[in-house]
Amino acid sequence: MTHSVQGRSVVITGGSKGIGKGIARVFAQAGAKVAIFSRHGEEAELAAKEVGHGAFGLPADVTSPGALERAMEEVARRHGGIDVLCANAGIFPAAKLEQMSSADWDYVMDTNLKGTFNTVKAALPYLKTSNQGRIVLTSSITGPVTGYPGWAHYGASKAGQLGFMRTAAIELASHGITVNAVMPGNIVTEGLAEAGPDYERNMTASVTLRRLGSVEDIGHAVLYFASKEAGYVTGQTLIVDGGQVLPESLMALS
Fold first, then answer.
1. Which are the catalytic amino acids?
2. In terms of Cα–Cα distance, which of 30, 35, 44 is closest to 10?
3. Fewer Cβ close by (within 10 Å): the C or N end of the chain?
4. What is the distance between the alpha carbons of residues 215 and 5, in angstroms, rounded to a whole number?
5. Domains in the chain, start-ordered, CATH in brackets?
């Protein structure tokens, strides 16, 4: 599977940290030509240096169609096109409903949901000319499957991505482009330490495999959807959560 992405041009939004950087690392190690997008160009460049294997970083805010178009054009110029788009950029500021403002809601939707549309739209001219066009969205179990206090806007945006995915998969099939999504559970990222040891302990206790996932766990799932071998898979989701959504309650894991 990894050989079928070798030499492929891959764009990863939100790739300067967390899951995005893990995806970039997996693709780079598989021999893909990786471009990392981030709102902050310096962070994208630093992440690219860490990833290595010829990866490079570009500034591109997913809420700015113009910035995305310019960045995609630069990737196509350097790599000769774009074969794989990993629409990973997302934010998750917490706010309970009573405290959440319309601006809070719009901020999350503009980045997570509208940002997905903006990113796909900007990449389409290049994906249509690829003989292995792939779009992989980073959704979440939160929203489509589960809920969590403070994340009503986040959950709605992640569920919305899946609605977008299904219609996009139909529309883009005539161009040979597949559109799929990964749905991560609790993953170890830079922000985990800020949540504190109690949070990590409680989250780990709720996972059937008794461990939190790594960013590479998500990266390998994305790699599958981007592979030649997944060419007959479109409009589908893959939960990568260590079995977190399986038990009816924590009593099932005792």
1. 154
2. 35
3. C
4. 19
5. 2-253 (3.40.50.720)
